[in-house]
Every structure is written in structure tokens, then in C-alpha cells.
Write a structure and sequence with these properties.
With 162 residues, the protein is mainly alpha-helical. It has 7 helices and 3 strands; from the N terminus they run H-H-E-H-H-E-E-H-H-H. Helix 1 runs antiparallel to helix 5. The longest helix is centred in the N-terminal third of the chain and has 29 residues. The two termini are 31 Å apart. The relative contact order is 0.11. It holds the Pfam family Staph_reg_Sar_Rot.
Length: 162
């Protein structure tokens, strides 16, 4: 076994700051959606993906890839949303195992109501504090993280599991 490459004090502080910032963003976005629109961030993500799809419908397996979720998580989320009337599930014609997920009129209405507050929350939380140069630096850094060999290998393993 190789010795771990321990984080320096400065790296540890930055790592914890990243974790805190991500938790704050997630918590704030979730609270805004739940308190104001009775939607979770997961429900919102599904509704956005469906609203942007061609006929406002998508195969479940394609949703997994689009959302970067595993099949179990996606399937359970869709089942809960189907029970709430936000989406509907139908069997895929010509593929007995395939499932098509469609946004319902209620899901569409709830998404339309939630979008303005969600966008304002994102703007005030993420973009308003940015100074000149921050966006490009952050974009460059996040692109490097997402394209790193470790991230690519983990994503490839996930795709193979689907």
C-alpha cells in the first residue's frame, strides 16, 4: 500500500472551504425551492431536464446520464414524482423494459412558478459576489477537475454500470 499524499494545512483549509461552500449553496437552493414551491432540488433537476427535452419526455436511461445519477436513484426519484403528479411513466413502445418519463401539466406549472426565484437565488449566491476574472478562473479550474483522469475514470465506471 502506498503512503497517502496528505494535504498540507493550506490545502486542508481550502478543501474544507470548498465543502462548506457547496453545502451552503445546496442548502440555500433546496430551502428556497422547498419553502417557496414545495419542490426539492432533485425534483427541480428532473423537471428542468424534461422541460428541455424535445417533446418534454425522455427515456429513463437517458435521464440517468443527463442528471449523472445511477439508475436506482433516478428510478426511485421518478416513482416519487409520479405519485405527486409531477411526471408520468409510460412503457417504451417496442422495448418492454424501457420507460419513458414525461412532465405533466402540474410539473410544468410548478417548474414555471419556481424558475424565477431559483434563478435569482443562483444569481445572488453565486454570481453577485464574483469579481472580474473570477468566472473565467473558476470555469478553467472546474473544467480541469471534471476532465482529470480520476474523474473521467470514475464517470466511465458509472456509465458502464448503466
Amino acid at each position: 500500500m502506498t503512503t497517502p499524499r496528505w494535504l498540507s494545512t493550506e490545502e486542508q483549509q481550502l478543501w474544507r472551504m470548498i465543502l462548506s461552500a457547496v453545502r451552503k449553496m445546496e442548502r440555500t437552493l433546496d430551502e428556497t425551492l422547498v419553502d417557496d414551491h414545495n419542490l426539492t432540488t432533485s425534483e427541480y433537476a428532473v423537471l428542468v431536464v424534461l422541460s428541455e427535452a424535445g417533446d418534454q419526455e425522455m427515456r429513463l436511461r437517458d435521464m440517468c446520464q443527463e442528471l449523472d445519477w445511477d439508475r436506482s436513484r433516478t428510478s426511485h426519484q421518478i416513482t416519487r414524482m409520479d405519485k405527486k403528479g409531477l411526471v408520468s411513466k409510460v412503457k417504451c413502445a417496442g422495448d418492454a423494459r424501457g420507460v419513458i418519463v414525461e412532465i405533466t401539466p402540474e410539473g410544468e406549472r410548478r417548474l414555471k412558478d419556481a424558475v424565477p426565484a431559483h434563478v435569482e437565488t443562483v444569481r445572488s449566491l453565486i454570481f453577485d459576489p464574483m469579481e472580474e476574472g473570477h468566472m473565467e478562473g473558476l470555469r478553467s479550474y472546474l473544467t480541469a477537475v471534471l476532465n482529470s483522469d480520476n474523474c473521467v475514470a470514475l464517470n466511465k465506471q458509472r456509465e458502464e454500470q448503466l
